Amino acid sequence: MYIFLFEKVKGSFVAKILITSAGSGVGSAILTAAQHSQRDYQFINLNSNALSASLYHCQQAYLSPPTQDRSAFIERLLAIVDSERPELLLAGRDEELVMLAAQREPLAQLGCIVPCGSVKSLQLCVDKYLTWQQMHPYLPITATASSKTEIQDLISQFGFPLFAKPRFGFAARGTQVLKSETKLWSFLESLQEPYIVQPYLQALQPGHYAPELNEYSGQILIGQQGDLLGIFASQIAVEQGLSTKILRLTSNSAFADLLKQTAQVLTKLGYRGPVNLQAIQIAPNQFSIIEFNARCTGLTGARAAMGFNELDLLYRDFVQQQVPLPLINWQAESLAVLSSHYQLLPLAQVSELQATGKLSPNNGQ
Predict the structure, then answer these.
(1) Per-residue DSSP letter, 55
(2) For 51-90, what is each residue's pLDDT tens digit?
(3) Measured between alpha carbons, how far is 117 from 266 in angstroms, rounded to an integer?
(4) DSSP secondary structure, 106-163, as one string
(5) Comparing C-alpha atoms, which of 89, 19, 42, 100 is closest to residue 318?
(6) Lesser CB count within 10 Å: N end or C end of the chain?
(7) Between the CA of residue 318 and those of 61, 222, 223, 315, what are the distances in Å?
(8) How many CB atoms within 10 Å of residue 211?
(9) Is the pTM of this model over 0.85?
(10) Backbone angles phi, psi at 159, to 5 degrees
């Protein structure tokens, strides 16, 4: 998690949030964002693994079936929502997004809002090949190939190395840099799931604070009525699939302009809620978008500490339905770095959660 000093001002009103796959890096980051808010949040955390640390930092923790067992997961989720009555539900992993979007109406009947767009608009973000097909006429999306013919065309145009990753993957899972045609076809023939191939782009200009700041990450929040709630433009350092440094860019940067353009396109396509895009700078003030993730991210806590609290903005718009605030005109760069730590888990509580599937850490306080 990202460690910062802050002063929290508590009020009398408590907002209830449910996080699925709360043991993910996204789930932990949402909890960190709450620490940087003046609003009081209570969390109901779900995860399939009782050893997930986030289950012991909430008011109510529940074990759930894995998302691969779709019907059992949804049945468990609806029962928990009916019992706990959270106001807002946030997904911790990409594979949950489409199934949660499909359950928006049943969840809304229980008073729980999922801040997302239509199933169709979510598929544009989850399916990386569909992202390319549908969005590259409007946005600078990195060239993406799926079929053998498309991959051969990609080789002819860009050469090697090429970058292969799961069509429906997330984070750095299953990604591979391939430096020859022999290794490329051998790798693709060994796969058990659909993959896409893209050119392996090199950053034009690394960050001036640290050379490893060679990717761009942008967080966009679109309100339930299509209003732009906020953008956060940044450069990041990625090591083994994990963002270890984040530099917040100013609101008048070229990358911030790309985020505003992207928000307009996504809004027209029916998307709502949080969406993250990653990009590489390929020329002065020009970027190539690598992929989209339609959720909060592992940097949500760091962004909150740097003045952009998406948890607050989402709750204000989707639950309280308040008039959107003016966009923040951010004029000062700031830098955050990752700080790792271990956490002790109380074994009695671990045993209770494993046995009953439910836990109230610290008596729900």
Answers:
(1) G
(2) 999 999 999 999 999 999 999 999 999 999 999 999 999 9
(3) 10
(4) HHHHTT-B-----HHHHHHHH-HHHHHHHHTTTS-BPP-B-SHHHHHHHHHHH-S-EE
(5) 89
(6) C
(7) 24, 10, 7, 6
(8) 11
(9) yes
(10) 70, -155
